[in-house]
Amino acid sequence: xxxxxxxxxxxxxxxxxxxxxxxxxxxxxxxxxxxxxxxxxxxxxxxxxxxxxxxxxxxxxxxxxxxxxxxxxxxxxxxxxxxxxxxxxxxxxxxxxxxxxxxxxxxxxxxxxxxxxxxxxxxxxxxxxxxxxxxxxxxxxxxxxxxxxxxxxxxxxxxxxxxxxxxxxxxxxxxxxxxxxxxxxxxxxxxxxxxxxxxxxxxxxxxxxxxxxxxxxxxxxxxxxxxxxxxxxxxxxxxxxxxxxxxxxxxxxxxxxxxxxxxxxxxxxxxxxxxxxxxxxxxxxxxxxxxxxxxxxxxxxxxxxxxxxxxxxxxxxxxxxxxxxxxxxxxxxxxxxxxxxxxxxxxxxxxxxxxxxxxxxxxxxxxxxxxxxxxxxxxxxxxxxxxxxxxxxxxxxxxxxxxxxxxxxxxxxxxxxxxxxxxxxxxxxxxxxxxxxxxxxxxxxxxxxxxxxxxxxxxxxxxxxxxxxxxxxxxxxxxxxx
Length: 482
Hints:
By secondary structure, this protein is of the alpha/beta class. It is 38% helix and 15% strand. It has 2 domains: 4-80, Alpha-Beta Complex (Outer Surface Protein A, domain 3), CATH 3.90.930; 100-393 and 470-474, Aldolase class I (TIM Barrel, Alpha-Beta Barrel), CATH 3.20.20.70.
């Protein structure tokens, strides 16, 4: 008689009932008591149906147990014992449409943030004396637009993000690129959505007016209260930037009402008071969305997060996630974007072979027009996929997809959180281990714990206000640019 065993899953509890997160399908399912008993019994070792019925004697009827077993078999939470199968490596058969292009219009910056991955101790491109021009020309920007629209394929829309360095140092190119992109897209029956990231130092009234009138989405790199912002986000003479950027940000937030303006916060070993930062940015400034990212740097740097730092970050994130959950259940807005983004992935059942769209549906363009995996690698010959003028080298792209597939990351093969993580950021891996193919093992415990938090938040919302989740039925998953 066939013996049954559990398949890959993560069990958690929410809203007073047990749930399973199924790997690798990334499905979330609630369990009734009989099904929960089956899972717990099989968790201690394989059993036949007869064994299960005998163990359930006097607790559940044969019919209840049969239904529970059938349901669990259907959802593949359990199954016949079989030899472990290697993770399949399924590669895209045709080029994936380019959904997001990040245009690095300059590799220069008027700040000198200590932890910056572009200009700090861990930089991978020489932006001072290297071969790349310091500012992108309008000719290159227009060629990039043409490249983007061509690579978008049959898709009716594309997203263009302007990036730096400090993006607004090359505001003139931005102003010429937007109308050109709109015109070219219209000729092809497409739409282009625009956004940019800025440190806010150059948000002058005319710039703000232009961004508002052209409905350009804005993300501001801003770390929080004065004592936090001024610790690392400083000018080249060492002066803190808070007093300069604060009034400019407030003016932008007051006038830019047609799209949410988000804040992107870098967390360091000495800057982990997430709640204080979140409160300051949402209540003092009025940011609608605030996202936090741990600093990308070598473990040797004094501002790097250590194990205790990740634990502190998890505690703070969890507290904000609980606030987010209560707001969602009550139908109120909450701006903690980290939990929202993960919940969206969970709701949409994302099971990723790659951690992000870099090199697939997202690419970065350097100031010279070289196309890289993403904006963080723009200008790096080692991570170049082609040029906007000559197109993508498909053999290079195919080699990248083959070598970076999750199936190659043996450390990830038994991790239940791999559908969400898929080994983590390539740039983080390059900085930590010198190799983009490596899994980011230094934050495995963190990502598993955070995914568990988000699963519990998701399940509670699904139980108490499922209508709130409907926004993700129609909203495509956007690539993060930071």
